[in-house]
């Protein structure tokens, strides 16, 4: 008898969970402008700032291409061991040494400031994090609107377990975060993101696992706040309180 009751509860849980998740995803797909804006903004950041604000460009060896450096003649007496007459150093030798020096300065500057050798790659991964943060923090808004429009009370009057309501919101947030992050990652690859030579499929799976866990934690936290919020203004204030400091903790 107890096993039959548990089986019925599990069935109601899964049916309610999938039904509510499908509803959230259908609402999202019916508003493609929301998805478009969520993807366009990170792309703008990557294209405009990922390339233009790359401090490595300040020390790029290519800045020497337009400079006409003449051969340099130095007295042989300055050399060790010294020789008679003048020694000519060809301009191509000077240019190669300057390019090597500028490349080293560029690399050290990037590593010391950002911890990576390519600013665009650094910013592209940051955009994936930003997508996950905003998608997860705004997941609680749907609870507030469901309560305000009366849909939440209708669901609570059904046999659907209350845990299914929360889990469907969290799962929807995770799916949206992974989907949008995949698009951003694909565009970043097209624009020239650099991966480590040791980057493998396992590392990629670890990235998606990190996105899933991060999204699950954040969406659960803000859903907990949303359960106590009766107005969307309150939830927006809570979201801004958390997201603004999170954005300024990055040195991007």
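Q: What amino acid sequence fits the structure above?
A:
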């Amino acid at each position: 008898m107890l096993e039959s009751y548990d089986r019925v509860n599990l069935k109601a849980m899964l049916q309610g969970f999938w039904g509510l998740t499908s509803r959230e995803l259908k609402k999202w797909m019916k508003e493609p402008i929301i998805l478009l804006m969520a993807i366009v903004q990170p792309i703008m950041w990557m294209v405009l700032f990922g390339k233009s604000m790359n401090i490595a460009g300040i020390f790029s060896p290519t800045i020497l291409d337009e400079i006409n450096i003449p051969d340099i003649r130095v007295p042989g007496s300055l050399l060790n061991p010294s020789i008679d007459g003048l020694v000519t150093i060809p301009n191509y030798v000077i240019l190669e040494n300057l390019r090597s020096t500028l490349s080293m300065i560029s690399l050290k500057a990037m590593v010391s400031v950002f911890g990576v050798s390519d600013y665009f790659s650094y910013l592209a991964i940051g955009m994936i994090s930003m997508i996950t943060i905003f998608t997860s923090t705004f997941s609680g808004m749907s609870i507030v609107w469901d309560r305000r429009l009366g849909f939440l009370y209708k669901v609570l009057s059904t046999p659907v377990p209350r845990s299914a309501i929360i889990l469907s919101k969290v799962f929807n947030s995770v799916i949206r975060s992974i989907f949008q992050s995949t698009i951003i990652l694909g565009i970043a690859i097209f624009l020239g993101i650099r991966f480590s030579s040791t980057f493998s499929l396992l590392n990629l799976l670890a990235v998606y696992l990190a996105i899933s866990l991060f999204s699950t934690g954040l969406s659960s936290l803000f859903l907990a706040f949303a359960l106590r919020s009766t107005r969307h203004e309150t939830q927006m204030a809570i979201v801004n309180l958390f997201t603004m400091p999170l954005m300024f903790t990055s040195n991007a």
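Q: And what stands out in the fold?
A: The beta strands are 72-75, 86-89.
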